[in-house]
Amino acid sequence: MKSAIVLLALGQTTAVLGGQVSVFLLGDRDEVLGTQLLDDADAEAMTAYVSGVAPPMDTSATKVAAALASFQGEPNRTIDKPFLKKSHMCQLEKKDVNTFRHFSDTTYAPTNTVCDLAGGTNYTWLVSADGQMSFGPYVDSLEWGMKHANLAFGRTAWVGGELHVPSEAGAPILWNLNSGTFSYYVAGKMRPDDPDAYLAEVFYPKILPVWATEPCAARMVYTTDVLFNEDKLPTYERIAGLCEDSKWMKYDSALTWKLDPEKGISACSYILEDPNICVDRSK
Question: Nearest CA to 24 among 82, 99, 91?
Fold first, then answer.
């Protein structure tokens, strides 16, 4: 018998192979574990397209030039398919929902400049092979639409990480190189015995000229600390809002949702009918 999970999906065009669609499977650090084939009705639903999303392309010419000078010709990676990712929805102690992510889910910060980002927020950041720098704002533990693979939007990318912009004026802006999808992937390929050393000795000095183009560069402080602690669960309103344009589906994986594996009922219907679903599900 298949066990049930909930699958949150928005649309993006992707290849369907003989009734199946190939997607990436991401691990706990957002590293690519491999690909997975979804078939039949799942494949049909998951290839729906939602338009109207595109990366901001207003990175300054100075920053683009610095990025290209530092990284052009260096190892890179392309994530060109949707991906599956386990996340926290109803509990912080365990990842209890498998989310299906499309590029069209992506939520970009409306700027390509660190100094213009809203304070009091964490962000993902990414430098893509076109020299553009993109940011994705953290909202809650679903990390919906702001994964590094989202920011890349199918583009080849070199490096990414996390960023904390404080609410206090003039306080340090913290940043790291923590991207399991891009930074650690390249570092692991180039120095499998010590990827952290590659980040420190290669990526760190290469990204500094890019940060130096920021007017607030003097406030930017490098850290190896993890800046996202996944300590904020999504509200019911947040989940219900995503469900309005999304589909939650049954899939074969052992997660904690108590859905009937034989019926494949949309979990969104549960959520929309019961605002206390995260409380009720533990009973």
Answer: 82
Tell whether 250 is covered by a domain: no
Residue type present at position 82: P
| Pairing status of strand 121-128 against strand 133-137 | antiparallel
Question: Do you know the residue count of the chain?
Answer: 283
- How many domains in the chain? 1
CA dist., res. 210 & res. 36, Å (int): 36
Burial class (CB in 10 A: 0-12, 13-18, 19+), 203: buried
Q: Is residue 13 domain-resident? A: yes
Say if residues 248 and 268 touch (Cβ distance below 8 Å): yes
> Which of 170, 167, 177 lies closest to 216, judged by CA?
170
The pLDDT, as a whole number, for residue 2 is 29
pLDDT above 70: residue 56: yes
Which of 95, 94, 89, 92 minimizes the C-alpha distance to 26? 95
- pLDDT tens for residues 260-277? 444 444 556 666 666 676
Number of neighbouring beta carbons within 10 Å of residue 153: 21
268 inside domain: no
Q: What is the pLDDT of residues 19-47, one digit of tens each?
A: 567 788 899 899 999 988 765 445 445 54
Q: Is the pLDDT of residue 65 over 60?
A: yes
Structural domain including 64 reads 7-222
Domain for residue 107, yes or no?
yes
The 3-state DSSP class for residue 198 equals helix
Average pLDDT over residues 225-252: 70
